Amino acid sequence: MIDELILHKQYPEALIFARRLVALDPLNERAYRCLMQIHAALGDRDGVRRQYRQCFDILARELGEEPAAETQAFYRQLITATIGPTVSPKAMPAIPPADQLQALPFLGRELEVTVLQERLDKTMAGHGGLILIRGEAGIGKTRLVEEFRHRSMSRAAGSRMPIRWLTGRCYEPEARTPYMMWADALDPLSTADWKSTLAGLPDVWLQQLARLTPQLAPLAGNIEVASMAENRLRLFQGVVQGLAFLSQSHCLILFFDDLHWADKDSLDLLHYVARHLAESPLLIIGA
Fold first, then answer.
1. Which stretch of 4-13, 60-69, 218-227 has the lowest confidence by average pLDDT?
2. How far apart are the C-alpha atoms of 234 and 225, rounded to whole Å?
3. Residue 31 to residue 35: CA distance in whole angstroms
4. Most buried among 86, 189, 218, 283, using CB within 10 Å?
5. CA–CA separation, 283 vs 68, rounded Å?
6. pTM above 0.90, yes or no
7. Domains plus CATH for the chain?
8. How wide is the angle at C-alpha 210 spanned by C-alphas 208 and 213, nearest 5°?
9. DSSP state, 175?
10. Of 186, 189, 185, 212, residue with least CA distance to 199
């Protein structure tokens, strides 16, 4: 049935049935491939990544295995293709509650959340920094950050300084692609919700952000040609200046998940940003 719905481009309906299949059989790789295909057809690149990661995580946890070569190759094909929506997201029907995963109670991590909240207090006072959360796969690092995010946003509602999050995720098939986690994290800057916050950022720095978020290119103008070493330095400086500009009006939190799959260039940029923006309202969390 799912294949038939995809064939006739009935993607919203296909999405419902594919999610039900995964809920009934969480180890069914074919169901995950269907979900990735549907998200690609809907223009949802992050959805493709999210479904692959879910497949990867559950197979590793339950079977101690990676996705099959067919699944990995299909994911690479989808993620490197030019993805454009073939149906409006507004056409998506609401998913019945039974098809949604229920959030588990948050237990036993209050000390860690308190440490993160204390660090947030310092960040809002202009003393940011980098926090790394370590632990075995499946121990709950991402869940911890999700809980902290929920609490931080609730707190921001009554604060004079808004708190905004940008999230980048690392994936094994992209581990050799430079700056992928930064491209993932900064991609929302191209949306209308974020573009207004970039108004006033000098073109020389906006051009560098556009190297990681090409959708910003119409705003940035032509990127100057330089040597490879100069290009790398300007990119690093551009990211620092862009984040510093954003943190003038917001307390900014950057979260990078699954850092063990990060490429070397991304980690070099992470170190550079953390070092240059340590005295800014910018908190970087890595897990």
1. 218-227
2. 11
3. 6
4. 283
5. 37
6. no
7. 2-87 (1.25.40), 110-286 (3.40.50)
8. 130
9. T
10. 189
Helical (H) or strand (E) element with 76:
helix 69-80
Give residue 84's pLDDT band: very low, low, confident or very high (50, 70, 90): low
Q: Who contacts 97 (Cβ-Cβ below 8 Å, separation ≥6)?
A: none
pLDDT in tens, 6-53: 988 888 889 999 998 998 888 999 999 999 999 999 888 888 988 998
Distance CA 269, CA 155 (A): 30
From residue 147, alpha-carbon distances to 89, 107, 144, 150, 158 in Å are: 27, 10, 5, 5, 18
Q: CA-to-CA distance for 279 and 287, rounded, in angstroms?
A: 22
Q: Are 274 and 184 in contact (CB under 8 A)?
A: no
Contact 176, 264 (CB under 8 A): no
Residue where the block lists tokens 């950050």: 145
**For residue 226, what is the enclosing H or E element?**
none
Measured torsion, CA atoms of residues 34, 35, 40, 41, in degrees rounded to the nearest 10: 70
